[in-house]
Amino acid sequence: MSRYRLRFLLQEFDLPRGITLLGRSLDCHVTIEDPLVSRQHARIIIDDAGATVEDLGSRNGVKVNGVTVRAPTELKDGDRLRIGTQDLVFCRVDPVGAAHAKTTGVLRLCANCRLPYPREMVACPNCEGTEQTEEETLSGRFGADKQHSWSVQLLIEALEKALTLGRTPDADRIIRRATAQVEEMIAAGAVIDGPQLASLAQAAAKTSLASDDPTWGVWVAEVYRRSSRIPPGPVIDALTDLAEKFGPDMKTPVLKLADHLRATARATTSDDAEGIARVEHLRRLLSGPLGAGEPRGEGSGTPTSNPTLS
Q1: Strand partners, 86
Q2: Given the DSSP bridges, would you call strands 80-83 and 73-74 parallel, antiparallel or unpaired?
Q3: Strands of the 80-83 sheet, one edge to the other
Q4: What's the gap between Cα 115 and its chain centre?
Q5: CA nearest 197: which of 174, 172, 226, 220?
Q6: 301: part of which helix (H) or strand (E)?
Q7: pLDDT of the chain, 310 residues: tens digit per residue
Q8: Which residues does residue 52 pair with via DSSP β-bridges, in sequence order?
Q9: CA atoms of 307 and 186, how far apart (whole Å)
Q10: Rounded distance, CA 119 to CA 117, Å?
Q11: CA distance 132 to 110
Q12: In the list 88, 131, 153, 293, which could disulfide-bond 81, CB 3.0-4.6 Å?
């Protein structure tokens, strides 16, 4: 008999025969403490015919592969479920090794740094805080900007974990989703949180270095130009590392960033002034021997996975 699992970030949960409840309540088999997830949000039923998912009257709905569920819907291997702002993947697996997955799980949201972490941990591994959020699940309480920001933060957490574990293919998959979310925010004119963008940029740079692929390093330079932000020190450090390894590929995006900052940026703090000066210094380095040669990929090295926005 086939076995099934749900994959959420880098965790997997077994789906036993019968009903599996998903929601914010601790009574659910899989509990996700996201304010946009209802207490009993959805259920997955496993029987001889296969697997189906059903919305339990949640405030924010259930989607399968982007389509809102209106009735019990059959699930197939690889289907993506959106519950609140969370993305889960439904998987069909071989019976061998199935015991390694969990059958229940709870993620809580840190009230201090807003990062999700397993409920069985005493404190948040990011900031060591012990207070979790008490926000109610109310439709419309959070705007589109907040939903995107929450989703991006979850992806950053998963990305950093994948990099720490050396799972480069997982990191590449996650960074594609995270950067796509940020691109959507830029296109919609949404406000992008500076520290969050910096965290994502540094993780993107690490992904490029780990995979020996300049794509995400190029994206870092371009996203700061398109969002008209001055990169903070750690991001410029990351750009410098990328330039040392992928000089020809990084030359054009860094020069464009430097030109943009020179024309539009206004230093309001000493950190801003230092950032502009450091990007200009990196520009001069790339204009010299460091940036000589031909780029590794075709064209200018612009990422093909995300659209270039003016």
Answers
A1: 83
A2: unpaired
A3: 11-15, 3-8, 86-93, 80-83, 62-64, 67-68
A4: 12
A5: 220
A6: none
A7: 578 888 876 577 888 889 999 988 878 888 887 778 899 999 999 998 899 999 999 988 999 998 999 999 999 998 999 988 778 889 887 554 444 444 444 555 666 655 555 555 556 655 666 665 544 333 333 344 444 566 677 778 888 888 998 989 888 888 888 888 788 788 778 778 889 999 999 999 999 999 999 999 999 999 999 988 999 999 999 999 999 999 999 999 999 999 999 998 787 888 889 999 999 999 999 987 554 544 444 333 444 444 333 3
A8: 45, 74
A9: 11
A10: 6
A11: 5
A12: 88
CA separation for the pair 300, 253 (Å, rounded):
9
Separation of CA 220 from chain center: 14
Residue 92 token pair: 């069909």
Q: Which two tokens stand for residue 192?
A: 């992008």
